């Protein structure tokens, strides 16, 4: 009975493709999300995911569904470069540049969608995703992009880590911080493209941030954080798909709800640093050592200087 | 990765793996001006340090200590003048000979990384295209950690350490770089006395082995006690004196200008805005 409930959503080819798409997108987002979070690029990720919309729509109009992923990739690369270039002007701060490119790109995308005859349906598919529209060709592109993103993450891993951990030393060792950031953002753009189908434009950033943030609560190491993030991203996708199918709810949004619920559960229940654990150890600490269980307290307060 | 074998020093294991000739490189700074955007942070600085010299960079905030270190390592843009280490004059060539320890607060200490992994990152300049840790790197990282007395804590997360322990970790990472010249930007700021002793002892040992050490500091007393020479900074390199002379009033006045306060009994204090 329960088996039927769980497997029923995957009885047709189109559904199995959707499942594979969701697993790849969730896994990729969860792993890359670790680097995004550690480099504090969450806002940038949000911006890029919205800024790819015009590329998606132009490709859809010109080439059709098959061209959408290429259009998004081109727009993502363009938007990431635009943010980088705008920030070079010292009078424009990075968050300002991100805000401008994000909203400008998103608005342009919606204007382009409004030129379509099937405005309402198209808008919904773009903004919220429709994983059942994944064609075999789409899936092929997804696999290629996943391979590229995976390779980049493997080759650049140590440099991403040093860049985020100790940027000044990275620079002193000859690593170009701006180029490394650009590589990370291009990878991000490609990942957003992969996730666009299943989650849609508006919520795609949730799949990048939330599973990786949950993983950060569970581990103090980068690699395990990436693996746990990937597992949580893929898992949220599968659970979200099943529940959405059985209860006839919006798939993309439900996937994000599942990921968020897992994050909240871990935040509260995690034994060492979760709310429950902290409250319990605080009660215990009243009789024991005053610093146990509080590693964050070790960071010294130092003043900035040149 | 082979250990430099030097029979004359075989009784004491060397801290760094740099070969003897690679260490014998004088650092020369000639008419150096450095700027950020429209601001000149360092003007017409000239000085030299022979191999095996411990130089303390002393001066008030904004006097150019950090800027000088960043210029040497190629992280600040040189407007004019030259920097050379031996016959290495380009940034790329110099970087191969330098280990740089950034200011404590520029490091993201909440980053999820162990002490050992953090130290192993010191090898990245040697092989940036290698996705994984190279051969022998783990052993060298453990030796570097042992040199700063942190080997037992190698599996801890860096965020769980005290400020002094964290500083010892990034100095251990600098030891991984086979460098001739060590540049340290206020390595003792916010560091407990025990860790400070370990770090200063290590820096002295490095200079004994022929390395050149440049350390930016706010602490005049520390500079006088541990360094060989003091470069007094004041928008340029204002004085270059033996460390023993730094407490003389005229030397102090040339470094600190109006920041200087001379108390009764010849005790020198600073009108220091820092702390």
Oligomer: heterodimer
Q: Report the span from N to C terminus of chain A.
A: 68 Å
Largest interface: A-B, 37 and 54 residues
Helix content of chain A: over 70%
Mind summarizing the main beta sheet of chain A?
none
Portion in strands of chain B = 15-25%
Please trace the helix and strand order of chain B, writing H or E for each element.
HEEEHEHEHHHEHEHEEHEE
List segments of chain A where confidence is low: pLDDT < 50 over at least 5 consecutive residues.
290-306
Present the secondary structure layout.
The complex is a heterodimer of chains A (306) and B (275).
Chain A (H helix, E strand, L loop, with lengths): L1 H6 L5 H26 L3 H10 L1 H10 L5 H21 L5 H20 L5 H10 L7 H30 L1 H6 L4 H23 L4 H15 L3 H26 L3 H19 L5 H11 L21
Helix pairs in contact in A: 2-8, 2-10, 2-11, 2-12, 3-6, 3-10, 3-11, 4-5, 4-6, 5-6, 5-10, 7-10, 8-10, 11-12, 11-13, 12-13
Chain B lengths: L19 H4 L3 E10 L2 E11 L4 E5 L6 H9 L4 E8 L5 H5 L2 E4 L13 H6 L16 H11 L15 H13 L5 E5 L7 H16 L3 E6 L2 H7 L2 E5 L3 E6 L6 H8 L3 E3 L5 E3 L5
Parallel strand pairs in B: 3-7, 3-8, 5-6, 6-7
Antiparallel strand pairs in B: 1-2, 1-4, 8-9, 10-11
Helix pairs in contact in B: 5-6, 6-7
Task: Please explain how this structure is put together.
The complex is a heterodimer of chains A (306) and B (275). Chain A is mainly α and 306 residues long. Helix content of chain A is 76%, strand content 0%. Chain A is built from 14 helices and no strands. In chain A, helix 4 runs parallel beside helix 6 and helix 5 (68-88) packs antiparallel against helix 6 (94-113). Chain A is globular and about 65 Å long. Chain B has 275 residues and is α/β, with parallel strands linked by helices. Helix content of chain B is 29%, strand content 24%. Chain B has 9 helices and 11 strands. Chain B is globular, with a radius of gyration of 19 Å. At the A-B interface, helix 8 and helix 9 of A face helix 2, strand 5 and helix 6 of B.
